[in-house]
Amino acid sequence: MTASPPTPHPSSPPGCTPAPLEAAPSDFQENALDSRSLLAGRRAVAIEHEGSRYVLRATRSGKLILTK
Length: 68
Fold this sequence. Notes:
Blueprint: H1 25-30, H2 35-39, E1 44-49, E2 52-58, E3 64-67
Antiparallel strand pairs: 1-2, 2-3
């Protein structure tokens, strides 16, 4: 039995597929998303995860904050 690759969420950026949960740390570096592409010029973006809404914000000092 072969596992099929994960499919991107309908609102994911093009070419973005989620990493499997058992991925090695090096896999995360290879599949890293640039924060500028996630925020797309906005200061904040809402993220839906397992039925909860989170907000990813960029601070003036260039840090990222994720809140529920």
